[in-house]
Each structure stands twice: as C-alpha cells, then as structure tokens.
Design brief:
four-stranded antiparallel beta sheet; 525 residues; 11 strands; Immunoglobulin-like; alpha+beta; 19 helices; rod-shaped
C-alpha cells in the first residue's frame, strides 16, 4: 500500500521512490581538457566523442567557410575579420566542449581512450599550425606570381610602345619604368625583381630602336629620355646601360644637325649646341667645326650660281647661328668665330650679286631694297658706284618696267643737251636711265602753283613756259631712249605716285624736261 508517494512494506519499513533519471557521472577535468583540445583543431572531434553531432557539424561548417574564404591563397592573405571570427569560434567551441566534457562520458569508455583522446587533441593542434605555415607559403607564392604578372604587364606595355612614335609612347614607357622601379625598390628579393636587369636591356633597346634604324633625328628624343632613367632606377640594376645612350645620342645629334645644315633647316644650330655642351669631348663634337666650315664654302659657291640671293640668305643665317654655337668646352670657339666672320664677309659681297640677279629677273622692288642695303653697309666697296646706278634704274623701272630691260653701266655724259626744269611748288627729284643712268634734285619753284587737272588735258597746255625763273639743270645724254621719273619731295601734291616720261633723244635737237603739279604729279617733255 502507498501513501503520499512513499511505500510501506508489511514489516513496517518505508523506502524513498526511485529517481526519474540516473545521476550524472562525477566531474572529470581530464576529460574536459581532452574535449576542449579536440575542439581546438576546428574539426569538432570533442563534440563527436561526446555525441554532440549537431555541434560537430557546426564546427565542420565553420572550418569549411574559413577554407572557402582563404583558398586559393591570395597575396593579400585572409581577411582579418574572417580570422578573428574563426578564432573566437574555436575559443567558444573549446570552452563549451570543456563544459560538456566535464560530466559527459566519452563514446569510448575507459581511461585509456581518454588519454588517447587527449593525446590526439594535442596532436591535432598541429593541424591549424601546419595550415598556417602552408598557407603562408602559398600566400608567398601568390605574391610572387602577382609580381611576375605585374612584370609581364610592364613588358607588354614596352612592346606595344615600341610600335608607336616616341611622343605617343613616352607615357607608356614611363609607366613601365615605374613598375620596374617599384619591383626593385619594394620587392628586392622577389623573382620578378631578379628579372628586372634583363628587362631593362630590352627596355633600352626598344626605346632606342630609331638609332639602330639610322633615324637619327627621330632617335634624339628617346635617347635623351633614356639618359634620365638612372635618376629613377638603381644604377646597380642598370650596369653598362647607364652610359648606353651617350655615344648614340652624340652621334644622332651630329648626324641630324648635319642633315639639317645641308637642307638649310633652322634646327641644326640647337642640335650642334646641345652636342657641344653635353658631349664636348666626343668624336662627333670634333666634327662640328669642319661641317660648319664646309657649309660656308658651299654657300660661297652658291653666290656664283643661279640663286645668289638664296645663298646670301643662307650665309647670313649661317653667320648668325655659328656665332651662337657654344664652342668653348670643345675648344673650337676661335675656329667657329673665324667661320662666322668669313660668312659675314661673303654676305657683303654677295648682296651686290643678289641685287643684280633680282634686277635681271625683273624684281625691281627687291633689287632697289637690296642695292640700297648694299650701299649703306659697304660705302667703300668697289661696286658701290654701280650699285647706286642699279638702284636708280630699279626705281625708274618700278614706274616704267621697260626701263629695266638692260642693266645700267657706269657710262656718263653724251652729245645731247637736256634741260630739266621744275614748274612745281615742291622740290623734285628726277631719276633717269637709258644709255646713261643718274639722278638730280631741283628745289621748289617760288610762285609756281598746281595746274587744274582739266587744263592739262588741253592740246595747248605748255608747262614751264610762264616766264618764271624756274629751277633748272642741264645734263648731257647720248642718243637713244631715256626714261625719266619725277618724284615730289614736298607735301603739296595730292598724289604721291611718281610721274614718268619716255624720251627718244636724237642728235641735233635741244630738249627740255619739265616737272609740274596737277591733282596728280605730272611731267612732260
């Protein structure tokens, strides 16, 4: 019989009721440590030995997620957040496993399996440590591959740039050089950095390719650029390449300047100047003065050719540019000064030849300017008297082109008397050319006035017959056609256009040439 949950036997004794579940086993610290250590491996083995299958699967999932994030190895490594999260998870799994294992028996009964589990847990701790070492090695390899990829990209950039003009390719060359520079400076022990010296040989050969193709003018800019590379890349990485561009640039400067000198281009002086300044003791620099001297001699011969004016212009430019050449460092300044002086002297004599050629070609404006320049610059030269006559004839021919068919001579005088009078209120310069060429000036006529334009159209119009004391001058001319041009030297005439007159002079006659003023300047015989 029972009463209130207690049982009583017939002999009078009472016993307590049976418990609902067996009592927990006693706490076992070694077992807790074993479970915790096994969980630290990340495989959840501690949970597996305590039959916590869901937690075991959770450990596997956490480890799989970490492997998914970490692999394949990346140069930047595993994200810090993922590592921290996994480390926290392992600590929590170890702590919770210790709590579970403290009173939960293992799936393998007995003390020997417990010791084995603890030893296995300690052994498995090497798995994460080994994984870290392995991952670091893989990460290092990934870094090496990344750097090699960067090197190859720079190589491709150089190869592509080599197919373009330097001005268009310079930015690519600089970008590639920056990559090489960074590899050596930031990753000196990498396989990529070890290959940079070999790549630099290709780099130099690609940039300087125009020189090998004998395109000397084109080669100047890239070779000049290559001389700046040692300022950016360690000289130990360049070796002999450091001086590689020097001789090539010196040769290119000379060859390009020489070609420009022969073609009368304006760039040759700057290129010779750079050569004499940068490489004054080089073999190409020693050839500069002979090249300049030869150019002067060549243009001297041109003065006797079909285009003397072109030769004069070139000699004038030569003299100026030779004077500007910096020959001091090369020790050729005195020789260059002599060449410049010779060119200047030839300009003086050649200017007269140029003026004659212009006159014969009918370019009277240019001939007048050239001869006036020659007379002004060479007052004592033997050709000055004839140059003055050619200038007079050219000025006459500007108004009367027929007057310029023959070159003036030094002939003077004649058998025919011609009196030139001025019936103008302004002073007048009279120019004439024909068998004899010359000029004279008459002062203004006091009391003379300008004639109405209509009166000059009358067939009875006769200037210089008013009975006044006209300023006049008598000259002697030979028979033949003489061309006269009258120029006013005053300001009372409305038109500045010179007046002209053509006289066919014959022996036995006395001629009067009259200058007068109308609404435009006029003359008459």
């Amino acid at each position: 019989m029972s009463d209130g949950g207690y049982g009583r036997y017939d002999n009078g004794y009472f016993v307590p009721p049976m418990p609902a579940a067996p009592p927990p086993p006693p706490a076992d610290g070694a077992r807790a440590v074993a479970v915790a250590v096994l969980n630290l491996s990340g495989l959840g083995l501690g949970y597996a030995l305590t039959r916590r299958w869901a937690l075991t699967a959770l450990c596997w999932i956490a480890t799989a997620v970490l492997l998914f994030v970490a692999l394949p190895a990346d140069p930047d490594g595993v994200p810090v957040g993922a590592l921290v999260a996994y480390a926290v998870f392992l600590v929590l799994a170890a702590a919770h496993g210790a709590r579970v294992g403290l009173r939960t028996p293992l799936a393998l009964p007995g003390r020997a399996p417990l010791a084995l589990a603890l030893a296995l847990g300690l052994l498995l701790l090497a798995v994460p440590a080994g994984g870290v070492v392995w991952y670091d090695a893989e990460r290092d390899e990934a870094v090496q591959q990344m750097l090699l990829d960067r090197l190859e990209e720079a190589d491709r950039l150089v190869a592509a740039a080599g197919k373009k003009e330097f001005t268009a390719a310079e930015a690519d060359y600089r970008e590639a050089l920056t990559t090489y520079e960074d590899l050596v400076a930031d990753h000196p022990d990498s396989r990529a950095a070890a290959r940079v010296p070999g790549r630099m040989k290709t780099y130099y050969a690609t940039v300087g390719a125009p020189y090998e193709q004998r395109e000397y003018c084109t080669a100047i800019a890239p070779l000049t650029y290559l001389r700046t590379v040692p300022d950016r890349v360690k000289k130990t990485e360049l070796g002999e390449l450091e001086k590689w561009p020097d001789d090539r640039l010196a040769t290119s400067l000379y060859e390009c300047a020489s070609a420009g000198l022969a073609a009368d281009q304006s760039t040759w002086a700057a290129q010779f100047g750079e050569l004499l300044t940068t490489f004054p003791k080089s073999a190409p620099a020693a050839k500069v003065e002979p090249a300049v001297n030869a150019a002067v001699v060549r243009e001297e011969k041109g003065l006797r050719g079909a285009e003397p004016c072109t030769a004069v212009q070139r000699l004038r430019a030569l003299a100026t540019r030779i004077t500007e050449l910096p020959g001091e460092k090369a020790g050729i300044d005195a020789a260059l000064a002599k060449d410049a002086g010779r060119a200047t002297a030839q300009v003086a004599s050649g200017t007269y030849t140029c003026g004659v050629d212009q006159y014969r070609d009918g370019d009277f404006d240019a001939a007048l300017t050239t001869m006036n320049e020659y007379v002004t610059a060479n007052r004592t030269a033997k050709n000055v008297p004839l140059a003055k006559k050619i200038a007079i004839a050219a000025e006459v021919a500007q108004t009367v082109p027929e007057a310029g068919k023959k070159l003036p001579t030094m002939r003077s005088g004649g058998s025919i008397s011609v009196t030139v009078k001025n019936d103008s209120p302004d002073a007048v310069t009279v120019l004439f050319t024909g068998p004899v060429t010359g000029s004279l000036t008459l002062k203004a006529c006091g009391g003379c006035r300008a004639y109405p334009l209509g009166s000059t159209l009358s067939p009875y119009f006769k200037p210089c017959e008013g009975g006044k004391n006209y300023p006049q001058r008598t000259i002697s001319l030979p028979p033949g056609t003489t061309y006269f041009v009258h120029k006013s030297n005053g300001s009372s005439i409305s038109s500045s256009t010179p007046a002209s007159d053509t006289a066919k002079l014959e022996n036995g006659y006395v001629y009067t040439e009259c200058a007068y003023t109308t609404e435009s300047f006029g003359s008459g015989l």
